[in-house]
Q: What sequence folds into this?
């Protein structure tokens, strides 16, 4: 297991390098294919909606994980800033899993992912009263495909305006 | 298919006055027992009365075909074609001409008759050992005509019990989630049907997402998860009256409910702050008890049939694995150590096995292991399948299977399947629309 994790991380770094070097020359290809996943975390913008300008509504996770990536933390900081500016807005964090897990475990995993996002918002000054967590497990995929890219889009926590 | 083993025993015990045919069900069965199900005979007056009440031309034949279908789907019996029958049903029920039944290679024969008696349906049936030329069993019972399907199931159970020495499972129902619509916006409703897929009935309208219904082993109650008002909570539903109520007062999501074997408690998970723990609620005094307390995900709990132990899955080792513990939460022991992830453990009603879902190298398996984790046997492999539920006699598992979609994300289906504990006799159970999360009831008649 540890070995495969090391391998995964190496792959992640390698992919990142590839993306960076490719960006200069072949922008579209890098953005559409290699750039859409890092490791198995979705990096694209296909399904992303915006709460306000420059404030993406969702963050993505690796398989079976609830750790926030650098990109996710950036997204959540933007969300926190937006919430601080709009102090009357409350949100629901909807946690989701991909279809490659048992239903009940995925419900718990969705809850764990949404809570990871909630904790991060709270460290940036958002009161827990303004945040509700709701897990959908694997019940509400955004992409109905049965492939790694589709699954990566579905492993997400989406911040939804509650009022 | 190829590796099926012949295990049908025909034991003739001359000393014993009966118990002549026996079906060994401990292994897969290549050679199901040939059985002749003679249509229940019916007199013209009774036939007309039932035709009026039930809109069935010949209720005797209808009941017989239920028996035939049950015996056939069990995989242990081979009901013979009626066209080959030489003896008329009414005469066969009085005194079978065993040479005739022997000629078509029947080893067991079921005969009977049905009467309309004072607005009631009266059935008698007999099971005969053809080779020994003896009656093995005779039973009669009376019920309301609308119960005619159950009559077929009860006869099937009696025959199954007499020939295999184990309890039957035909007079049972399945509760499940009926689903339809695009994969991204599935509409899900609770549904119930007889074990053979008949008498399908939807119990909710599909206005809110519902998941994982489970039968109370001792009554017509069901526990399930509903997203009513967008709050995922465990509910209790009385199938007879339709009354529903939330189970407990938890400040967050409750899920993965199941009844204790005595039907008096609900065991479930409660998720808070990114961790899920196992709780029970006593349905009489409403006392809630916390069973696990760990920063991991602990879910999918299931009691042992004596109520003394609980099996569940947890990712406390870093990955989803199966554990057992005493029912008070002490003595937690991991039991799954094979390659891959393990989930949805369900304790067999016989107590000796735990059925589970396994994910390994991108494939999903339904399997069984002993309660110490040894003797793992994978029964079926597929793209996606999970959530086995035991037949009340512990011989058959029902589960659901989902298909992989194509490049355009189309072609998703979810269906119910059953498989024998031996790994043979895998069958799809027909449902009016797609289906998932099946749960098998106890025997309705005892």
A:
């Amino acid at each position: 297991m540890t070995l495969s994790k090391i391998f995964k991380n190496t792959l992640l770094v390698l992919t990142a390098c590839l993306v960076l070097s490719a960006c200069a020359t072949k922008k579209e290809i890098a953005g559409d294919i290699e750039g859409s996943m890092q490791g198995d975390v979705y990096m694209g913008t296909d399904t992303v909606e915006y709460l306000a300008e420059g404030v993406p509504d969702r963050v993505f996770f690796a398989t079976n994980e609830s750790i926030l990536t650098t990109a996710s933390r950036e997204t959540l900081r933007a969300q926190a800033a937006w919430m601080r500016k709009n102090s009357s807005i409350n949100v629901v964090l909807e946690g989701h899993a991909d279809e490659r897990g048992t239903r009940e475990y995925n419900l718990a995993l969705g809850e764990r992912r949404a809570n990871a996002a909630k904790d991060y918002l709270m460290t940036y000054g958002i009161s827990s009263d303004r945040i509700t967590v709701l897990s959908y497990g694997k019940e509400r995929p955004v992409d109905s495909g049965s492939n790694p890219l589709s699954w990566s889009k579905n492993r997400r926590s989406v911040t939804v305006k509650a009022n | 298919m190829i590796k099926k083993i012949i295990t049908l025993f025909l034991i003739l015990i001359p000393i014993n006055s009966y118990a002549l045919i026996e079906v060994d069900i401990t292994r897969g069965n290549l050679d199901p027992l040939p059985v002749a199900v003679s249509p229940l005979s019916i007199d013209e007056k009774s036939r007309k009365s039932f035709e009026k009440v039930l809109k069935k031309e010949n209720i005797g034949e209808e009941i017989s075909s239920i028996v035939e279908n049950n015996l056939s789907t069990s995989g242990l019996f081979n009901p013979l074609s009626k066209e080959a029958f030489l003896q008329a049903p009414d005469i066969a029920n009085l005194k079978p001409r065993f040479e005739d039944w022997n000629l078509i290679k029947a080893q067991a024969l079921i005969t009977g008759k049905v009467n309309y008696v004072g607005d009631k349906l009266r059935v008698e049936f007999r099971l005969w050992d053809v080779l020994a030329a003896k009656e093995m069993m005779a039973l009669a019972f009376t019920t309301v005509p609308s119960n005619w399907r159950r009559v077929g199931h009860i006869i099937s159970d009696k025959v199954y019990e007499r020939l295999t020495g184990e309890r039957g499972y035909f007079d049972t129902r399945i509760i499940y989630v009926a689903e339809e619509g695009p994969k991204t916006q599935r509409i899900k409703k609770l549904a119930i049907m007889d074990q053979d897929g008949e008498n399908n009935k939807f119990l909710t309208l599909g206005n809110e997402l519902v998941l994982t219904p489970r039968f109370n082993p001792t009554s017509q109650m069901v526990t399930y998860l509903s997203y009513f008002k967008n709050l995922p909570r465990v509910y209790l539903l009385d199938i007879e009256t339709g009354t529903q109520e939330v189970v407990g007062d938890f400040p967050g999501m409750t899920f993965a409910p199941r009844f204790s074997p005595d039907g008096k408690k609900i065991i479930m998970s409660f998720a808070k702050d990114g961790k899920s723990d196992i709780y029970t609620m006593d349905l009489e005094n409403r006392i809630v008890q916390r069973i696990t307390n760990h920063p991991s995900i602990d879910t999918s709990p299931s009691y042992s049939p004596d109520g003394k132990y609980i099996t569940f899955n947890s990712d406390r080792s870093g990955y989803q694995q199966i554990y057992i513990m005493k029912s008070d939460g002490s003595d937690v022991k991991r039991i799954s150590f094979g390659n891959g992830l393990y989930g949805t453990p369900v304790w067999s009603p016989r107590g000796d096995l735990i059925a589970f879902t396994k994910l390994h190298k991108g494939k999903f398996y339904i399997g069984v292991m002993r309660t110490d984790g040894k003797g793992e046997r994978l029964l079926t492999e597929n793209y996606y399948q999970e959530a086995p539920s035991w037949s009340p006699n512990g011989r058959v598992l029902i589960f659901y299977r989902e298909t992989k979609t194509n490049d355009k994300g189309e072609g998703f289906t979810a269906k119910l399947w059953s498989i024998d504990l031996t790994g043979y006799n895998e069958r799809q159970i027909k449902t009016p629309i797609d289906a998932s999360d099946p749960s098998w009831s106890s025997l309705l008649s005892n």
